[in-house]
């Protein structure tokens, strides 16, 4: 491509690419017949002419390279001179954008060449006209598509982000090159116009299309859009990326989005999906860790309520990685409400004691292990010591109680043992430097063979051999 935009406009006017010339004639005929212009067919034709059919290193390949440069030169000139008042202006713009996209190595390369100075009102109006007529194609079996569209629209409208996340996670959209480039140009040249249009349309498919087009720039653009569902769509793809593999400033951008959403009525819906299964070291969770220290106890309560309790030990690690920096940022006194909220939910849950047919075959980890430990580490010492003594006595004398069967006995004992391990680790953290003690207790193991057999100890997540 030309090294600069101004370079692309200098010199003699370039020849119109053959495929573009044919398309310009065709649109006149189509308009006279009240027919639509098929951008996909034009894309295929110009792509074949500019990229295929030559041998590497041949004179034909060198000529094709010159044709691509010429096509870019022509398209840039046409874009700079575009007027929405010209006859068939919309079709002309489609041909220009498609030519510019296909003749370039990537849409990103095009954007790097186009200066903001080109943002004259007529071009912006033309780009918005294309946006208003966009038809997002979904690669679905026809019989299932309408139901999916209805479900997606409903989930987006109601702020059911957990359902919406499942519906769009593996969604494949098809966008014509002129629409992709129009979206990118509007983001660069008139972001407020595009943002207002997204809010006005309130269309999940359009939101996904913009996200896919902008790719890694989508979360940053979402900061300027007031629609919370659009923010969710833009973040959903990037939140689960590992921080080490994420774009520069990704954590800061997502943190800013979280803080924006936290001020809306849809915060609880958002966090119910965002924090459901923390896994640690992701962009979303690192950003959430930073954001939580800037939010209130009311918002903390929604965060605690969102976390799934029955889960793998890795989720306890994920929650720890969110809340340990939170504790370090706020200190013991300011962070105490978070630990109390976690303790109250955990205490009422009691490892599923009120759930029908929920047996506990071993002491269990819980997603809220760390905040419950911090609760016991920060409340008055005599309260923690009294809880430890009570649990020890209960476990030691449990055989004196009446149970309907051994499974009920084992489950009750294992719930008490699950509680005791957190109380005891809270005492350890209280009495030692946080730099010398792990935030979580060690993996759960039976203390001896008798305990394993008597209480039917079986933990599929324990780090030990299953074979005896």
Largest sheet: 2 strands, antiparallel
Amount of helix: 55-70%
Termini Cα gap: 68 Å
Count of beta strands: 2
Q: Could you tell me the strand content as a percent range?
A: under 5%
* Low confidence ranges: 464-468
Shape summary = elongated
What class, by secondary structure content? mainly alpha
Structure annotation, total helices: 23
State the main characteristics.
64% helix; 1% strand; mainly alpha; 468 residues; elongated; two-stranded antiparallel ribbon
Overview of the structural elements:
The protein has helices at 5-9, 18-32, 39-51, 59-80, 89-103, 107-113, 121-132, 142-158, 161-168, 177-189, 191-201, 204-214, 218-222, 228-236, 250-261, 267-274, 283-292, 297-306, 313-349, 369-378, 381-396, 406-431, 449-454; strands at 137-138, 173-174. With 468 residues, the chain is mostly helical. Among the domains are: 5-133, no CATH class; 307-468, no CATH class. α10 crosses α12 (204-214). The chain is elongated and about 95 Å long. The model is unreliable at 464-468 (pLDDT under 50).
Secondary-structure map:
Layout: H1 5-9, H2 18-32, H3 39-51, H4 59-80, H5 89-103, H6 107-113, H7 121-132, E1 137-138, H8 142-158, H9 161-168, E2 173-174, H10 177-189, H11 191-201, H12 204-214, H13 218-222, H14 228-236, H15 250-261, H16 267-274, H17 283-292, H18 297-306, H19 313-349, H20 369-378, H21 381-396, H22 406-431, H23 449-454
Antiparallel strand pairs: 1-2
Helix pairs in contact: 2-3, 2-5, 3-5, 4-5, 5-7, 5-10, 7-10, 8-9, 10-11, 10-12, 12-14, 15-17, 16-18, 17-19, 18-19, 19-20, 20-22, 21-22
